[in-house]
Design a protein that fits this description.
By secondary structure, this protein is mostly helical. It is built from six helices and no strands. The termini are far apart.
Length: 169
């Protein structure tokens, strides 16, 4: 067999090993997938709360959130039109449908076509935290389900892996 004919087999075998890493499990330690960061997003949204990875919501949710920035969960978070358009384009390009987060597909399945506005209420994420007592989220060091970074120190990098989570007292 000529060496050139072996290349597709080598690539196929490498792809099979890479696919194995996609499965959740303790034996597979991969760096979390992460969408490229947009400084505008980190500055504007990250000024008040975690700049949540865009892959945690579908594009329609991001669009609805941006359309109502004058009443963003009780706060006025309005942006000028060029900034809002830039954010909307970037969020749409990196939303759950784009697969920028490893958990995006599971999140999309869990919401069943709805348009959630709060990441902290996503059924998939609630199921990942269902073993935690409700009092954990009331602790001053955590304060709410939306404060992902309290337990997930690398949340800003899109790392929400359970084995690296630390629940503060």
């Amino acid at each position: 067999m000529r060496p050139l004919l072996l290349l597709p087999l080598v690539l196929l075998a490498a792809g099979a090993r890479a696919d194995d890493d996609e499965h959740d499990g303790e034996h597979h330690r991969r760096a979390p997938s992460r969408s490229p960061q947009l400084p505008l997003y980190e500055a504007e949204c990250g000024a008040c709360h975690l700049a949540f990875p865009p892959g945690l919501l579908p594009a329609r949710s991001w669009q609805k959130l941006l359309a109502n920035l004058d009443d963003h969960f009780g706060q006025n978070a309005e942006l000028d039109l060029p900034a809002r358009q830039q954010l909307e384009r970037w969020l749409r390009e990196n939303a759950a449908e784009a697969g920028t987060q490893r958990k995006s597909e599971k999140i999309l399945r869990s919401i069943r076509g709805t348009t959630p506005l709060r990441i902290s209420t996503l059924p998939y994420l609630l199921s990942k935290h269902d073993e935690l007592p409700a009092e954990v989220f009331k602790r001053p060091s955590v304060s709410s389900r939306a404060n992902c970074a309290a337990c997930h120190p690398d949340a800003l990098q899109g790392d929400f892996e359970e084995d690296r989570a630390r629940i503060p007292r």
